[in-house]
């Protein structure tokens, strides 16, 4: 791999990033502050996601025992109004374009437990989370006014998560958002040219090269993509061209749950902290087409760089030029690969 500054291409978004490996020859050396894991109660009476508690809008959560889905009380998108249908916005000039947008915002609690994150939950409960996302996606995709369903998780205060209670969000809307729109074009063109899905061809090559793979099970592989922007960014790719969450078989759901735990456990162990990230699925647009080009995948974008407190900032050159990284994706993958798959809180407990 090159040691000199170079650009790498992301074929999914068709954007470039700058890699400067010479600036981080030994990125794992230097101080690694550890933060004591927050001692959270199993149920927090002040948490608006815990069972039985009151939320901001005055509604009460039921005494739920597994996953729990509710409409976001501060939804960024509003459903279409059946009484007053959405009116088009007059287009006065191509320089002042706007379009109405309708949709739904939901919050998905992973379990009644306030204190257990994904790598700490029983595997069956993580499977249940995936099942819940799949069902919610299917219900939203059944609506003709929904173009896309975005399932995502913000974890940790560093990523703006409002609450440590493990949860995710689903936003479904009437237009295709920017990121999946870029991926759609790239995957369609690749499929038209090569006759096979871009991500499956990419995955095949990564399996052969092996240097960026973190973990692999029957139906999914986790790797640090060749074009990763965030220091410990990972991509979890399905082994077949599965279009979306509802199309997963029960075996695939289990494999995906295992991979979700694998990745998050390695993340936590890396700096012995509850590793913050934004995670999200990219699934097929809801346009009535078949999309043989699309492969369901999961992006993890974690901000940490060197320790539980030293993070990467996407500022300055990144905002004005393009993304840049020092530690190479290959080094990041090696560091994640060497992490134990026993969660550090359990390992520490058995040592104590
Ligand atoms: P984040 O932690 O990713 O911000 O997700 C929590 C969501 O929960 C957030 O979008 C919603 C916020 O609007 N919320 C409610 O719907 N009800 C509440 O009582 C507080 C927070
Ligand atoms: Zn809670």
Describe the structure.
The protein is of the alpha+beta class and 352 residues long. The chain has one domain (40-79, 100-341): HIT-like (HIT family, subunit A). Helices cover 26% and strands 18% of the residues. The protein has helices at 123-141, 178-194, 198-209, 250-271, 317-320, 329-337, 344-351; strands at 6-10, 15-19, 68-71, 103-109, 148-155, 167-173, 213-216, 220-223, 234-238, 277-282, 297-301, 324-325. A 9-stranded antiparallel β-sheet has the order 3-4-6-5-10-11-9-8-7, with helices on both faces. The protein has a 3-stranded mixed β-sheet with strand order 1-2-12, with no helix packed on it. The longest helix has 22 residues, at 250-271. It is globular, with a radius of gyration of 21 Å. The two termini are 41 Å apart. The mean pLDDT is 94.
Name some characteristics of this structure.
18% strand, HIT family, subunit A, globular, single chain, binds 5,6-dihydrouridine-5'-monophosphate, 12 strands, 9-stranded antiparallel sheet, 3-stranded mixed sheet, 7 helices
Question: At the fourth CATH level, what is the homologous superfamily?
Answer: HIT-like
Distinct ligand kinds: 5,6-dihydrouridine-5'-monophosphate, zinc ion
The side-by-side strand order for the widest beta sheet comes to: 3-4-6-5-10-11-9-8-7
Distance linking N and C termini: 41 Å
Give the C-alpha Rg: 21 Å
* SS summary, helix count: 7
What value does the average pLDDT take?
94
Q: Which blocks of ≥5 consecutive residues have pLDDT under 50?
A: none
- CATH fold name, please? HIT family, subunit A
The SSE string, one letter per element, is EEEEHEEHHEEEHEEHEHH
């Amino acid at each position: 791999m090159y040691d000199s500054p170079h650009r790498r291409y992301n074929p999914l978004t068709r954007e470039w990033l700058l890699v400067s490996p010479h600036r981080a020859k030994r990125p794992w050396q230097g101080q690694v502050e550890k933060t004591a894991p927050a001692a959270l109660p199993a149920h927090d009476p002040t948490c608006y996601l815990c069972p039985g508690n009151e939320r901001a809008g005055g509604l009460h959560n039921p005494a739920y025992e597994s996953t729990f889905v509710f409409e976001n009380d501060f939804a960024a998108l509003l459903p279409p109004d059946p009484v007053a249908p959405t009116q088009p916005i007059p287009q006065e000039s191509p320089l002042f374009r706007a379009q109405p947008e309708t949709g739904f915002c939901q919050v998905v609690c992973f379990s009644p437990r306030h204190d257990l994150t994904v790598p700490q939950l029983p595997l069956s409960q993580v499977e249940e989370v995936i099942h819940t996302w799949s069902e919610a996606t299917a219900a939203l995709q059944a609506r003709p006014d929904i173009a896309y369903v975005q399932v995502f998780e913000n974890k940790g205060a560093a990523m703006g998560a409002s609450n440590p209670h493990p949860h995710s969000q689903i936003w479904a809307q009437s237009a295709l958002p920017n990121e999946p729109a870029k991926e759609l074009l790239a995957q369609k063109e690749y499929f038209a040219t090569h006759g096979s899905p871009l991500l499956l061809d990419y995955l095949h090559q990564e399996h052969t090269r092996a240097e960026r793979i973190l973990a692999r099970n029957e139906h999914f592989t986790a790797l640090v993509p060749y074009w990763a922007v965030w220091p410990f960014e990972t991509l979890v790719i399905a082994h077949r061209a599965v279009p979306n969450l509802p199309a997963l078989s029960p075996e695939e759901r289990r494999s995906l749950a295992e991979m979700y735990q694998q990745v998050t456990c390695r993340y936590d162990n890396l700096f012995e902290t509850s590793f913050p990230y934004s995670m999200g699925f990219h699934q097929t647009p809801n346009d009535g087409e078949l999309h043989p080009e699309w492969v369901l995948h999961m992006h993890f974008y974690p901000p940490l760089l060197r320790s539980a407190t030293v993070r990467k900032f996407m500022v300055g050159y990144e905002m004005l030029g393009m993304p840049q990284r020092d530690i190479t994706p290959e080094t990041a993958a090696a560091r994640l690969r060497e992490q134990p798959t026993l969660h550090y809180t359990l390992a520490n407990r058995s040592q104590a």
